[in-house]
Specification:
Blueprint: H1 5-9, E1 13-17, H2 22-32, E2 38-43, H3 46-57, E3 65-69, H4 75-84, E4 90-93, H5 100-105, H6 107-127, E5 132-135, H7 147-154
Parallel strand pairs: 1-2, 1-4, 2-3, 4-5
Length: about 160
């Protein structure tokens, strides 16, 4: 039996990658209502990270909402994140290039970011013993007809 989300996420340390993006930021908005012990917002866009952190800061006690600026493709950043702070109970991986036309124009970057970033993040999460890893995907991964869909299928 799967517990109610509030019970599952309450008092947990949660890391959300891609927290500044449209999907990641919405996940963070919902998670903050479940009263996590800490909610780590991870993004490589400074302005997007700034915006979501400012939005959520007033919705939780001081110190709950934390931010980390960096890329999921950077193993040193990930190891520092997982090794240098409170070990997360849950990682929700929403970081990805998701716009099909852009991924078609830049397939190497799509593969490096989507596949390489997922591999690096999963490696670090495993290395540090993270309890749960949730990857956000897309219906385009079922029968991929684009670079973006293929990268998400590979993940």
């Amino acid at each position: 039996m799967i517990p109610h989300p509030k019970l599952h996420f309450r008092n947990k340390v949660i890391v959300v990658t891609g927290a500044g993006g449209s999907i990641g930021s919405e996940i963070c908005r919902q998670l903050i209502t479940y009263e996590p012990a800490q909610l780590w917002l991870v993004a490589r866009s400074e302005i997007d990270l700034f915006r979501i952190e400012r939005e959520l800061r007033g919705q939780a006690p001081a110190g709950v909402v934390r931010e980390a600026l960096g890329s999921v493709t950077d193993l040193r950043f990930l190891d520092a994140l997982f090794g240098g702070y409170t070990l997360p109970d849950i990682v929700i991986h929403a970081a990805a290039h998701k716009h099909v036309p852009i991924c078609e124009e830049h397939p190497i970057e799509a593969v490096l970011n989507n596949v390489g970033g997922t591999i690096a993040l999963a490696h670090s999460a495993s290395k540090f013993g993270v309890g749960q890893f949730i990857m956000v995907s897309t219906d385009k991964a079922v029968k991929p007809a684009s670079v973006m869909g293929a990268t998400k299928r590979a993940c």
